[in-house]
Write a structure and sequence with these properties.
single chain; Rossmann fold; about 40% helix
């Protein structure tokens, strides 16, 4: 079994996403792993998890500020080697591309993110990622 050196965590501001970030911090500290937090910026996005969707591009700087300073808050105080990436695109495609680009050994996502589709016990993003990633995926 290869050691876990790099963990990619999906971040969208939801409660499940915060749980994923906090869990990732604990695991990364225990393993001395590097963390890459990634937010996929779509055509529409939210500034708050329960807020209305807004056109993403005109609010890109605001979304990035919330992403870096709030959604990734546990990373900032963790003492870990980490990076934050705001990338345009579909969450699954962005996560898969980031996993590959970073040579990640583990991916972490929340079970249900900002979409909160009640018909899915696991979110469609987490389900698709688990099915398509070629590394282990932890869904919280």
């Amino acid at each position: 079994m290869n050691p876990v050196r790099t963990i990619v965590v999906g971040v969208d501001g939801s409660a499940a996403s915060l749980a994923a970030v906090e869990w990732t911090v604990g695991v990364a500290q225990a393993l001395s792993a590097r963390v890459v937090a990634v937010h996929a910026l779509g055509l529409l996005d939210r500034l708050t998890p329960d807020g209305p969707k807004v056109a993403a591009q005109p609010h890109r700087e605001e979304i990035n500020e919330v992403f870096e300073n709030q959604w990734c808050g546990p990373l900032a105080t963790s003492g870990l080697d980490f990076d934050r990436q705001l990338i345009d695109g579909n969450p699954v495609s962005v996560m898969l591309a980031t996993i590959e680009a970073e040579g990640a050994d583990l991916a972490v996502v929340g079970a249900r993110g900002a979409g909160q589709a009640p018909s899915h016990l696991l979110g469609s993003t987490s389900t698709q990622l688990a099915l398509r990633a070629d590394i282990p995926v932890t869904i919280l």
